[in-house]
Design brief:
Layout lengths: L1 H21 L14 H31 L3 E5 L2 E6 L2 E4 H4 L8 H4 L3 H9 L8 E2 L5 E2 L8 E5 L3 H6 L9 E5 L4 E2 L5 E3 L4 E2 L2 E7 L15 E8 L2 E2 H4 L7 H4 L6 E8 L11 E6 L2 E7 L7 H11 L7 E3 L19 E6 L3 E9 L11 H19 L1
Bound molecules: zinc ion.
Length: 377
């Protein structure tokens, strides 16, 4: 009898927890009259059942808050969370607990997850359609980039698939927003649609099996390249040719990996005006994201806000000679991550704008011969 009574007391307690989980009005649970042992047992079972259901519901809410995905955008230089067509200012909705500094927000993924779970309770700061977004990582200390990381792109370039990731850097001055203008200084500027990884938790010697824990988010990027400058030194040095101011559009926002249906498989598309130029899937990456993070972190400490441009699919403009022209609108999309729309503007000539380096001329001749032989087949 004593055991049954304590069981019922426990059930009442669990029931109360369950009730509290469901209800916003935390009224006390009224005592229930029982007339027999059977009724007491039945009541106990019911309380227990409701209690477990309530506890599970509460647990699922806590887990949802802890692991909810989020989208972080740069609106007027302030860190903002995006939900459908609206945005929410992080400093405002956190009551000043979190700052509006985007670089600091990149170190607070778990706080943003929790905040994201309660977005519906707040009033949005405005509509995305009414604002221009800036780069979601405005001041990265390092921008790594990977060459020849899609098989078909390596083949179209007539280059061997590298045995280890082919890493170069883009200088952080090149970073611009999802709608920023691309300022071109020769007639040989090319597009490269890319998936960009943003590091959250810093790390060194990161093994591939824990690499995703260091990823704050993913976004769309363009690795814009002035091909003559890229190939003007011998051997070619990619960094300067790909680092002109505005040559690194990223955005439209950062999406946390847990907000994606499949972070390993997303369609990537590049259009110039309405013409489709590149189309592939990120599942075709030769070196996947965990491999790239592991490889890079063996050599350098990866820091919060570091970017990794993961490489471009086939269809770049240089081989057929379809370079970007003044007034073109470059549209880059990745399924689940959003779209960049960058207008191309031809502003002036750099000092080598008219010089076609031998290395580039040879590579293009080989690639065009290969492409026309393939077409004849
Ligand atoms: Zn690239």
């Amino acid at each position: 009898m004593e055991a049954i009574a304590s069981g019922v007391l426990l059930s009442l307690h669990i029931h109360d927890l369950g009730y509290r989980a469901f209800s916003r009005n935390r009224r006390a649970v009224s005592p229930v009259p029982v007339n027999s042992i059977e009724e007491l047992l039945f009541a106990g079972q019911m309380f227990l059942f409701q209690g477990i259901a309530g506890a599970l519901y509460k647990l699922s809410m806590i887990l949802k808050e802890l692991f909810m995905g989020f989208r972080l955008a740069n609106i007027d230089g302030r860190a903002s969370l995006v939900l459908k067509e609206h945005y929410y200012d992080i400093e405002t909705i956190s009551g000043g607990e979190l700052t509006s500094d985007l670089m600091l927000a990149l170190g607070a993924a778990s706080n943003l997850s929790s905040l994201s779970g309660s977005l519906q309770e707040h009033k949005p700061a405005g509509k995305l359609a009414d604002v221009q977004l800036g780069p979601p990582v405005p001041r990265p200390s390092n921008c790594y980039a990977i060459g020849l990381n899609y098989r078909k792109h390596a083949e179209e370039s007539t280059l061997e698939i590298p045995p280890v990731p082919m890493v170069f850097t883009k200088h952080s001055n090149c970073i611009t927003g999802p709608e920023g203008e691309i300022e071109m200084r020769s007639d040989f500027v090319d597009y490269e649609a890319e998936l960009v990884v943003v590091i959250g938790e810093p790390g060194k010697d990161i093994s591939p099996d824990v690499a995703w824990k260091h990823v704050f988010g993913l976004c769309v990027g363009q690795d814009i390249s002035d091909r003559p400058v890229q190939f003007s030194a011998g051997p070619p040095q990619f960094n300067l040719g790909k680092s002109f101011d505005t040559f690194g559009p990223i955005g439209p926002w950062l999406t946390s990996p847990d907000a994606l249906k499949d972070r390993n498989s997303m369609e990537i598309i590049c259009k110039v005006n309405d013409e489709l130029r590149q189309k592939d899937n990120t599942s075709d990456l030769i070196f996947d994201i965990p491999t790239l993070i592991s490889y890079l972190s063996e050599i350098v400490t990866l820091d919060t806000g570091d970017l990794i441009f993961t490489g471009t699919p086939d269809g770049v403009g240089a081989i057929p000679g379809n370079y970007l022209c003044d007034g073109d609108v470059l549209i880059t999309s990745i399924d689940g991550l959003g779209t960049l729309r960058n207008k191309c503007v031809r502003i002036s000539d750099h000092s080598r704008a008219e010089v076609m380096p031998d290395a580039l001329a040879k590579l293009l001749t080989a690639a065009r011969t290969k492409a026309s032989a393939k077409e004849e087949k």
